[in-house]
């Protein structure tokens, strides 16, 4: 079991649907991350939140909309996705925040997303 | 753009032998490096990390070596076991926008032969 919980584990949606991915951690970490991982590829960074503020957006299309309601929760809102967006979406958290020393990330097991 | 790691190779080792997995990085501003293990259907799992002011760090059965001169990182696994079979990623961390940004290498699949 991981300390970062992602729901749902699997999601199938059509290109016109709106859905959300959820991530939760209770380790007191102040940095949270979204990654996209295609099969047999490394995770690719999408967004970084630090102290509930978006600090990095890796030029992700606007059909992906992140949200950090509080220090324990991270959402990824999906709308009008394309088939090529099918992937494993990973959430991670770390103690790293503004001015903090580096610490390793803790990952959830991801949401397997399939776009029909 | 910046990149970390080699094209995904597969390393096959006999059970009980030592394994060495290599990684190259290109961002000279990176000052923190992590090795992750990813098993099928799971997220990456932290193995060991090293900061740029060190060149070697040891954990339980694992050792990470950092050569900043040639921007090279390696993970050594002693007495490799069947449970070590997985994909291994290195990741480099650098400060960006007041927080830390991590870029993953392409990964190495480790197969342990009985």
Largest sheet of chain B: 6 strands, mixed
Helix content class of chain B: under 10%
- The ordered H/E elements of chain B are EEEEEEEEEE
Number of extended strands of chain B: 10
Residue windows where pLDDT falls under 50 for at least 5 positions of chain B: none
Shape of chain B: globular
User: What is the helix fraction of residues of chain A, given as a range?
Assistant: under 10%
Note the gap between the termini of chain A.
30 Å
Shape of chain A: globular
Helices of chain B, by number, come to: 0
Strands of chain A, count? 11
Strand content of chain B: over 45%
Instruction: Note the run of SSEs of chain A as H and E.
Output: EEEEEEEEEEE
Task: Write a structural description.
The complex is a heterodimer of chains A (116) and B (114). Chain A is an all-beta fold and 116 residues long. Chain A is built from no helices and 11 strands. In chain A, strands 2, 4, 5, 6, 9, 10 and 11 form a 7-stranded mixed β-sheet that branches. The mean pLDDT of chain A is 92. Chain B is built from no helices and 10 strands. Chain B is mainly beta and 114 residues long. In chain B, strands 1, 3, 4, 8, 9 and 10 form a 6-stranded mixed β-sheet that branches. A 4-stranded antiparallel β-sheet of chain B has the order 2-7-6-5, with no helix packed on it. The radius of gyration of chain B is 14 Å and the shape is globular. Chain B has strands at 10-14, 19-24, 32-38, 45-51, 56-58, 62-67, 72-77, 86-96, 99-104, 108-113. In chain B, a hairpin with a 2-residue loop joins strand 8 (86-96) and strand 9. The termini of chain B are far apart. The interface between A and B is medium-sized, with 29 and 28 residues.
Write the layout of secondary structure elements.
The complex is a heterodimer of chains A (116) and B (114).
Chain A: E1 4-7, E2 10-13, E3 18-25, E4 31-37, E5 44-50, E6 53-57, E7 64-70, E8 73-79, E9 87-94, E10 106-107, E11 111-115
Parallel strand pairs in A: 2-11
Antiparallel strand pairs in A: 1-3, 3-8, 4-5, 4-9, 5-6, 7-8, 9-10, 9-11
Chain B: E1 10-14, E2 19-24, E3 32-38, E4 45-51, E5 56-58, E6 62-67, E7 72-77, E8 86-96, E9 99-104, E10 108-113
Parallel strand pairs in B: 1-10
Antiparallel strand pairs in B: 2-7, 3-4, 3-8, 5-6, 6-7, 8-9, 8-10
């Amino acid at each position: 079991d991981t300390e970062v919980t992602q729901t749902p584990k699997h999601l199938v949606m059509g290109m016109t649907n709106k859905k959300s991915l959820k991530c939760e951690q209770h380790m007191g970490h102040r940095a949270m991350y979204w990654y996209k991982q295609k099969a047999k590829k490394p995770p690719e960074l999408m967004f970084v939140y630090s102290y509930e503020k978006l600090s990095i957006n890796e030029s992700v299309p606007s059909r992906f909309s992140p949200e950090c309601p509080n220090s324990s929760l991270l959402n990824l809102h999906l709308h009008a996705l394309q088939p090529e967006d099918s992937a494993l979406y990973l959430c991670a958290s770390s103690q790293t925040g503004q001015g903090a020393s580096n610490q390793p990330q803790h990952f959830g097991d991801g949401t397997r997303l399939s776009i029909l | 753009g910046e990149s970390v790691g080699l094209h995904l190779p597969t390393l096959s080792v006999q059970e009980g032998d030592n394994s060495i997995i290599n990684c190259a990085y290109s961002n000279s501003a990176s000052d923190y490096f992590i090795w992750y293990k990813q098993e099928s259907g799971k997220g990456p799992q932290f193995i060991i990390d090293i900061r740029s002011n060190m060149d070697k760090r040891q954990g339980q059965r694992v050792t990470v070596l950092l050569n900043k001169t040639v921007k090279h990182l390696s993970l050594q696994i002693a007495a490799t076991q069947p449970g070590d079979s997985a994909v291994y990623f290195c990741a480099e961390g650098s400060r960006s926008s007041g927080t830390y940004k991590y870029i993953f290498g392409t990964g190495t699949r480790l197969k342990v032969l009985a």
